[in-house]
Protein: Glutamine amidotransferase
Organism: Nocardioides anomalus
Amino acid sequence: MKPFLFLGIRAQDVPADDEYAAVLRCTGLGERDVRRVRLERDVLGPLDLDDWSGIVVGGGPWNVSDPPDAKAPEQRRGEARLRDLALQVLDADFPFLGACYGVGTLGVLRGGVVDRQFPEPIGPMTIELTDAGRADPLLGVLPASFSALLGHKEAVSRLPDGAVHLASSSTCPVQAFRMGEHVYATQFHPELDLAGIIARTEAYKHFGYFEPDQADAVVERSRAVAVTEPPKVLARFVELYARS
């Protein structure tokens, strides 16, 4: 099987490693089949898409809507590389799944707008599939309504031209969309579980997602809700796109 490529943007080792481990667990693949590049520290050179089965992008504390002068050099470099890659992927309609930060990567292309209108706190949220989402080859493996874990400061307020709206929540209109036939972004985290929430809550306690003294309450909100369905998205992505 040709490997999948996982692109991370987390500079903190504990949540970065936990996220990669979660992707391996949810896909059912090993490190040989899911190669990792950490864009916050590594340079991603030119890619021949024919060498890969698909690409997965994780989440992290970068926001495309941050003022340019507030972005660290590694963020500016990583965002520029991801933009180039996204354009390459869209041109080829190549299998791509961007979780959380994938919304920022794809959502600013082709007339789309990503801004701060629809933030959501870290924790569980009920996600509703649209009619298109229920019929979609990837998202359609999920129930019409399900619980997922998330936490974000920015979101899509205007979909890119031609994008297909696949899912929403009560506080964020765009939770998932597709561009072309094989290029996806989700605002919720398909890989995230309670252990991951605990790791990320500790790592990002001072990143402005919540007041630091509320960290225990953030974890308890997540502990109170059973989240079982989102990992099916990653397993289905492999089922659809793994190739020899």
Notes: The first helix runs from residue 13 to 27.
